[in-house]
Amino acid sequence: MVLDAVMSTRMETDSLGSVEIPVDAYWGIHTARAMDNFPIAKRPISVYPDLVIALAMVKQASARANAQTGVLEQDKADLIDRAAQLVIDGSFHEQFTVGVIQGGAGTSTNMNANEVITNIALELAGRPKGDYAFLSPIDDTNRSQSTNDVYPTAIKVGLSLTLQSLLQELSLLRQAFLDKAVEFHDVLKVGRTQLQDAVPMTLGQEFHGFATTLGEDYDRLRENAYLLFEINMGATAIGTGITAHVGYSQTVLHHLRKITGLDLQTADDLVESTSDTGSFMSFSASLKRDAIKLSKICNDLRLLSSGPQAGLGEINLPPRQAGSSIMPGKVNPVIPEVVNQVAFSVAGADLTVTMAAEGGQLQLNAFEPVIAHSLFQSITWMRQAIWTLRVNCVEGITVNRDRLGTMVSSSIGSITALTPFIGYAAAAALAKTALLTNRSVADLVVEARLMSREEVLKQLSPARLSGLEAITAAIPTASTSDDTERGERP
């Protein structure tokens, strides 16, 4: 039993003392201490695979740069390179065990990466884990680096990788709304402002508006993503480049660009960029913008589908699950509701990023771990929310054509289309009469001999009511003409 206990662990030592590490663990003493110190989120950094991949990419680029500048033996660099590639390819992610929320400005995350990649490399060399005299996590894998340039660079690379999947889902959702816009292009309905009846439009126009606003957010996210391409590799501790070879910064940039496929650039001022988190704030703000606009769309979908008997009932959302444990037959708009909640979380995360950015002092922001967690969680949740909104809701929306037709035919809002011909005052009086008597606007206009029935029907056609076909030029009133003749602004 004693022999088994000895065989199941290995001893590692740092400046604080020695710790027993499970013999099969690829992480080491620094990771072990962090796991004890930060039982906060109960979520390891491996929950964000692109962050782990980005860390491995940085270590791989650094190994290549260190070999090229002559500060690391080629055989050691090759081992680190091969080990990092295994992580990039998806292996050993479960070994990235430190919590996403941690003190130390990300040092625990960087050391977790150093230890895992080093021990993978040791195995590739046929050496036992923990044989740091042969290959060191700090002297070799972390050569020419500091947490203070590795960690923010890995966050930026990881966010850039994750963003691609979010943009793909956003594009698919936009197309789903465009498809519905085509399907509903001829469905006339009553538009609303301030929840009150306004003027007619088509349901296709409404859904096309959803698609357009998502397209705008797609562009804003891509624009702000470019801010993440400025990195500070070579800055080391505070931006002065201490312990790094003079050619390291540009060399590691070359390799990291090649590995990631991203148009990365080294910051002009490494001291400034090491402490600056402005790019994270801008990126977070663009995520919040998209989330809030998605939430507004979901609010509209919930309103338009409200009922089915006592609400607007214009559209039907796909029934996804029973809506009540007490009311039989009730079905709730659960998909838009979950997207709403994701939007609330993203908005809160944006405030967290803002406060963390403000809380940094002097040459380093110690709160980048919570910035990273907030941004990666927001992107991940947004991506999944957009997927479920498209697949489980938007693609299956149907329309209640008869109900919409009834509402349009009885709406007094259509008289707005006749104001260029009969004037606002007459239109307002007839609208009031129509509302009180429940009579047709068209009939009242014809009875008042303000327009012929043929002209009324022409102007109240679906194409003209929805703005798809121009109605007429404005008819100037006498007061407008007089003011213009006097040179006064109409």
From TrEMBL:
Gene3D superfamilies according to UniProt: Fumarase/aspartase (C-terminal domain), Fumarase/aspartase (Central domain), Fumarase/aspartase (N-terminal domain)
Domain Fumarate lyase N-terminal: 17-348
InterPro entries hit by this protein: Aspartate_Ammonia-Lyase, Fumarase/histidase_N, Fumarase_C_C, Fumarate_lyase_CS, Fumarate_lyase_fam, Fumarate_lyase_N, L-Aspartase-like
Protein name, UniProt field: Aspartate ammonia-lyase
PANTHER family xrefs: ASPARTATE AMMONIA-LYASE
Positions in coiled-coil regions: none
Pfam families associated with the record: FumaraseC_C, Lyase_1
Residues of the signal peptide: none
Residue span(s) of domain Fumarase C C-terminal: 415-465
Superkingdom to which the source organism belongs: Bacteria
Keyword Lyase: yes
Key words of the record: Lyase
Organism: Microbacterium ureisolvens
